[in-house]
Amino acid sequence: MIDLTLLADGGIGWIDASGPASPLVLSTRIRLARNLAGRPFATRSSAEDREAIAEAVAGAVAGTEALGRAASFRLDRLDLRDRLLLHERHLVSKELAGLGGEPAPVGAMLLVQGRVGAMVNEEDHLRLQGVVSGFALDAAYAEVDRLDSELGQRLAFAFHPEFGYLSACPTNVGTGLRASVLIHLPGLVLTKEISKVLQGLAQVGLAVRGLYGEGSEVVGNFFQLSNQTTLGKSERDLLDHLGKMVREVMTYEEEARAVLLRDARAVIEDKVWRAYGLLRYARAISYEEAMNLLSGVRLGVGLQVIPDVGFYALNKMLVHTQPAHLASAHGVAIDDPSLAVHRADFVRTLLQDEGRRAG
Amino acid sequence: MTCQQCGEREAVVLLKKVEGGEVRVMHLCERCAAERGVPEGDESAKTPLGAFLAAMGGDAPGESPLSSAAALAECPGCGATLQDFRRTGRLGCATCWTTFEGPLRGLVRRVHGATRHVGEFYAQPGAEPADQAAVVRRLREQLAVAVSDENFEQAAELRDRLRGLE
Ligand SMILES: [Zn+2]
Ligand SMILES: [Zn+2]
């Protein structure tokens, strides 16, 4: 079992909701795809290659500021619950965690220290990541850029003068940069404006994904917005473009919420208080139901209809009601039927404490 | 997970639908997905990468982006061929990028709308000064092209990079 005390903030410092615009934007994450020169990419690499890559990376990070004190996990040696837990924290991809139908690849490793992390032996040898609270592209980039510079001096990255940083998949070549913003858009969903907005984003080259990234479903009105292309624009331009679009989406969302309050106040108040009531008193809740109810309560808090619930508590409930989190906390399997009861207990207690704290 | 429609077969398709403003998600088996009009096969066929890979195999009508010589070439770094790339959608090693430079440039243009990296420049640790000189030469060439294309944004980037190196 994973000892998460090894992780200073459990690798999820962003849940404290301390960042800019954190009622709307939960987190900003930026990842850089990097490969080591002279080593085959994942599709052509042997188990020995992969072990050697893991070893080279572990050696290189040892002296660094960014990852020198990192907690390190070998995903190919962890049990299912722990791998799922790390995935639920957005620290590893489904593939690297061996959750995509195939087992975790040999040499699959995660390094994490505070706001930065590295996946090793994913599709690319290295996927460096910086994650911060709220809408803060510059802060997230500063974190991952520092890690990238430190590692780039210790390891030889594959770089081509024309194509830039080389990747296993041509969709990641160039900067290797994928920035994504996890945003809550219940107003646009309720006013039925969401499909229009999502189509607009696709037209300006942004990708929209669900809560867990590529191929994942949209739950609880949480969307991940990210840049689609990685080459032909500088890092700065990619971030500026995404930032501009996210700010626009935030404005649309605020407008949608204002419309809801103006035209359907009673309906909205009823909807969000019902969500609160269920979370506050129910005795068994499925994950999907919890996500939808949390979305409702989050909207209610954002609209200042529901007082006395903080965004930190809302984020905590999102993270800790996930199956592997509950299963680890209670020492049961990830499909244990008791999880629905534990989930209801967790949110009930937290909302009770929030109410008491506010007096 | 079992199919949410028939509750019998294993769900293999994730159907995402915007219904009345709500984004609804359903896990469906292949048969139920087909009943609901989800096209069989991979969505990726609609992406530039998917289309390119399909065209490389000659599945798609029209001109193939590959000459037969390139199709037979083998990467000296890893032994991969373009057929391998077509099958997996992934390159075998960094050398593949120079071995298959021509076809990849076309693909990169279609995917990214550009072929030249204009972001951060990277020099491997202990890079020979000679390599640096080659990089500077290459950047100057790129700068000349950018200027003649009136791509001023890119030209400014390249100038910054050159300034950083000289
Ligand atoms: Zn079915
Ligand atoms: Zn190769």
How would you describe this structure in keywords?
heterodimer, A: 359 residues, alpha+beta, eight-stranded antiparallel sheet, two-stranded antiparallel sheet, 10 strands, B: 166 residues, mainly alpha, two-stranded antiparallel ribbon, 2 strands, 8% strand, elongated
Distance between the termini of chain B: 59 Å
Number of strands of chain B: 2
**Low-confidence sequence ranges of chain B:** 40-46, 58-65
* C-alpha geometry of chain A: globular
Query: Which sequence of strands runs across the widest sheet of chain B?
Result: 1-2
Q: Strand portion of chain B, in percent?
A: 5-15%
Oligomer class: heterodimer
The whole-number mean of residue pLDDT values of chain B reads: 75
Bound ligands, named by name, code or SMILES: zinc ion
CA-to-CA gap between the ends of chain A? 38 Å
Largest interface pair: A-B, 57 and 48 residues
- Beta-strand percent range of chain A: 15-25%
Q: Mean pLDDT of chain A, rounded to whole units?
A: 93
Count of strand segments of chain A: 10
Please mark out the parts of chain A with pLDDT under 50 across 5 or more consecutive residues, or reply none: none
Q: How would you portray this structure in words?
A:
The complex is a heterodimer of chains A (359) and B (166). Chain A is α+β, with helices and mostly antiparallel strands. Chain A has helices at 47-61, 80-88, 137-154, 186-190, 194-203, 235-281, 287-302, 311-320, 323-330, 339-358; strands spanning 25-34, 71-74, 109-113, 116-120, 126-133, 159-160, 164-165, 177-184, 206-209, 222-227. Chain A has an 8-stranded antiparallel sheet with strand order 2-3-4-5-1-8-10-9. Chain A has a two-stranded antiparallel ribbon with strand order 6-7. In chain A, a hairpin with a 5-residue loop joins strand 4 and strand 5. Chain A is globular, with a radius of gyration of 21 Å. The mean pLDDT of chain A is 93. Chain B is mainly α and 166 residues long. Chain B is 46% helix and 8% strand. Chain B has a two-stranded antiparallel ribbon with strand order 1-2. In chain B, strand 1 and strand 2 form a beta hairpin. In chain B, helix 7 (129-148) packs antiparallel against helix 8. Classes of the chains: A alpha+beta (359), B mainly alpha (166). The complex binds zinc ion (2 copies). The site of one zinc ion (ZN) has 8 residues of chain B, from helix 1.
